[in-house]
Amino acid sequence: MQPYFLPYIGYWQLINAVDEYVIYDDVSYIKGGWINRNKLLLNEKEFMFNLILFGASPNKLINEIFVAENQSKLIKTIETAYKKASYFDNVFPVIRNIFEYENKNLARLIGNSIIQIANYLDVKTKFIYSSEIEKDCLLKGQEKILNICDIVQATEYCNAIGGMNLYNKLDFETNNIKLFFLKTQPIEYTQFNNTFVPNLSILDVMMFNSVEEINNMLDKYELV
Fold this sequence. Notes:
Layout: H1 9-17, E1 20-23, E2 37-42, E3 45-50, E4 53-54, E5 66-67, H2 72-82, H3 88-99, H4 106-120, E6 126-129, H5 141-151, E7 156-160, H6 169-174, E8 178-184, H7 202-208, H8 211-217, E9 221-223
Parallel strand pairs: 1-6, 7-8
Antiparallel strand pairs: 2-3, 4-5, 8-9
Helix pairs in contact: 2-3, 3-4, 3-7
């Protein structure tokens, strides 16, 4: 999967469900996607936030783009939004460390954020960057994924449910790989006194739930 910044819990269910997770960083950056933005809860409403980038372009790979040094406005927004949340004191130091990561390459900073949060949640999955895998870079789409699976000797490949139109189970079976799609079950928890706002960043989940509660949520999915 492409590296997304503080993605929703379904992304984390996928990470937790596999033994090895490939951070797909040597593909084109998608402007307006979820790579450098997500949603949090601000004043009891959904609020879109963004990492400030340098040189972002769909003509560049994700790992060719950099994050601006000063993200203080976003950090302050997160603090303002969640300073009264139940687990703010536990989570906010993790968030600050993510922003203070010295390597400002977009792929590496997001990759580090994924690893930091995985550590916080006690997720044991192994991570590898696709750019570190020697593969046929002329391949595209499904063929490139199959090539990566072959190189890392994968017998199963799991993708988010949104990929059902991108990958063909029969083609994977032909390559001796079982293909699964992860479908997140409905998840709801207490935020503040508002009506629950779903599908926000993992940041929101962490601010209102213990690690144990989140780990229970990570199992609320089905494979299709």
